[in-house]
Design goal:
86 residues, 0% strand
Length: 86
Amino acid sequence: MTGVYYLTHLVEALVRPGKQRDLEAAAGKGIEAVHLAENQASALNVARLCDLIQQLTPHVKVPAVQEFLERVEGLPIEADPRLSRG
């Protein structure tokens, strides 16, 4: 397993409703995962990032989440159309 895998699970925990929810922290860890994925392109990493896109997109009004979504769009992974929010 890669650092991207573990970071994305942490992000999922931070996004879940409840007292642990911290969207800014989730987006920050998501950006860390994006940074790692830039150097570790794999199908699993792409799948995990796609899951995060789906979970964080409803919170796009949060500036940190918006930054995360912009970073994901900039990934040089063209093989998977799931990375597009369009």
